[in-house]
Design goal:
Oligomer: single chain
Number of helices: 11
Strand content: under 5%
Number of strands: 0
Order of helices and strands: HHHHHHHHHHH
Radius of gyration: 17 Å
Largest sheet: none
Distance between the termini: 42 Å
Length: 248
């Protein structure tokens, strides 16, 4: 079963079977230029996990855009695993997308943008885990990609603005805690009246619905523990997460 794309994206006009943009696998920079300095400056002011959430949330728009052109569950499965890895990267492999896919199979005007999108998500997750990392750069690039390939980019931008405002209000970057709180997937829904007090219950609801035996990008609890996961896999403890982030 392929993970469900959010209803607010399905309600848009972002999916069709026509490709009107130019695509060059050896010059993907054209999809990211000119660099959006204004967006980048906003993103570096929110937590690293919030940047990952924004990156995956944008990637879901791109995956939906190609729903009539490609029948491959891997991108949606990878994004599902990405939401889990935003909680703790051990839910999947550090180089998950590259480990389970072949680059040559993700080229051309349809599969090419999807492959680049998944790489942006992968590196955003990695950057959020690294001291001095910068997931904001990948988040900026993927937003430009969405506007390049989506047929009606104004719909994406209409989603992006209230979500950025929410992230800025709730997840402003704290120099003493740059990684920041886990962001539930529901926080990406502009119609959902999200409150940060809901975080633990929403995240546990998401984790409880995951099936690592179905999604090749997710790890088993046993593998997670051997890789150093603290706590009980597929159960989120907010206080434990804070202690791990803020420990000296």
């Amino acid at each position: 079963m392929t993970p469900q794309i959010p209803n607010y994206i399905q309600a848009s006009h972002s999916q069709n079977n026509i490709v009107r943009y130019k695509w060059d696998d050896w010059n993907i920079e054209r999809t990211e230029e000119p660099f959006d300095e204004v967006l980048y400056e906003r993103l570096i002011r929110i937590g690293m996990r919030a940047n990952v959430a924004f990156t995956i949330g944008t990637a879901e728009w791109i995956v939906y855009r190609y729903g009539l052109l490609i029948d491959d569950p891997l991108p949606a499965n990878y994004l599902e695993a990405g939401w889990a890895q935003m909680i703790d990267w051990r839910y999947g492999a550090y180089y998950g997308w590259q480990d389970l896919t072949k680059e040559d199979e993700w080229r051309g005007p349809v599969r090419g943008p999807l492959g680049v999108t998944m790489s942006r998500v992968m590196y955003a997750i990695q950057q959020a885990e690294e001291s001095g990392g910068d997931p904001s750069l990948r988040a900026t690039w993927i937003s430009s990609m969405a506007q390049y390939v989506i047929p009606f980019p104004d719909e994406y931008r209409s989603w992006r603005e209230p979500i950025l405002g929410r992230l800025e209000r709730i997840y402003a970057r704290d120099p003493s805690d740059p990684k920041g709180e886990v962001v539930p997937r529901e926080a990406m829904d502009p119609e959902y009246e999200f409150r940060i007090e809901q975080t633990e219950s929403l995240v546990n609801g998401f984790l409880a619905a995951l099936d690592y035996s179905r999604n090749p990008f997710l790890h088993s609890p046993e593998r997670m523990l051997t890789e150093g996961f603290r706590g009980t896999p597929y159960i989120f403890d907010l206080e434990q997460d804070r202690k791990m982030r803020l420990r000296p």
